[in-house]
Amino acid sequence: MYKEHNSLFSEIKQVARYLWKRGWAEKNAGNFSVRLSAKAVASKEQIYPLEQEFSALANQIFLISIKGSRMRNMAKNPKRNTLFIQIGPKGQNFQVIHRNKHAQQAEPTSELSAHLTIHNMLVNSASTARVVMHTHVTELIALTHIPQFCNETALNNLLWSMHPETVMFVPGGVGFVPFELPGSAAIAELTTQKLANHQIAIWEKHGAFSVASSLQDCFDTLDILAKSAKIYFMLRNSLENEDPPGLTSEQLERLRNIVF
Ligand SMILES: [Zn+2]
């Protein structure tokens, strides 16, 4: 199983390093899952029940980060910090079908429920996105500490108005998820609803979830949004806390009309 996934492990190393270097992955913050194209295998490994049935994920195999893993360690050794899991034939349970010898006691991330709920929706909607990534994007977390941006319309208008790339590469904007406890069924459900029609869901005062066809693409979208937020804070500082006007509606309209 390892050989065919060597390029995926190289990508994980690279993206985990970015997340750590950007300061978006303090302690054990951040997790990800990748839906693989590998076929289901017969396994006698222990079966763990899932809280709900993920029928669209029956017999699917995922590579998923382990509970408590550090991105700084992931960047050095992704094989020790991930597990291959296989969902049961009705989507009701899972087995760990392959683990590194140094990860014998490891369990999947505590956000397993959110990851599977999102993947279930992605499969049902025939999305090309196979990767779900959660990280603590400092710049975006800071924005959601400002009450006026805890509102999807205001948040998107700000992000688009600060940087042309945001309009071009995140034209559908971000979904905003009001504060909920991490690991809860409620946050999994709310996040999935937002990701049904956005590339990104931002959790109030916590971080972001990104979906894409690769880890690199998940990172890139967050990177663009973080840049917009950073420009906003730089301008606020230099304008003595006055709100910067940003791109005009005419400029935004012209950007929206660019055909790639
Ligand atoms: Zn988190």
Describe this structure in words.
This protein is an alpha+beta fold. The protein has 2 domains: 1-110, L-fuculose-1-phosphate Aldolase; 137-260, Class II aldolase/adducin N-terminal domain (L-fuculose-1-phosphate Aldolase, 3-Layer(aba) Sandwich). The protein has helices at residues 6-21, 71-74, 112-124, 138-143, 152-162, 164-169, 185-195, 215-238, 249-256, and strands spanning 31-35, 47-49, 61-65, 82-87, 93-99, 131-135, 175-177, 200-203, 207-212. Strands 2-5-4-3-1-6-9-8-7 form a 9-stranded mixed beta sheet, with helices on both faces. Strand 7 (175-177), helix 7 (185-195) and strand 8 (200-203) form a beta-alpha-beta unit. The longest helix is centred in the last third of the chain and has 24 residues, at 215-238. It is elongated. The two termini are 38 Å apart. Zinc ion is lined by residues 29, 134, 136, 182, 206-207.
Quick overview:
This protein is an alpha+beta fold and 260 residues long. It has helices at 6-21, 71-74, 112-124, 138-143, 152-162, 164-169, 185-195, 215-238, 249-256, and strands at 31-35, 47-49, 61-65, 82-87, 93-99, 131-135, 175-177, 200-203, 207-212.
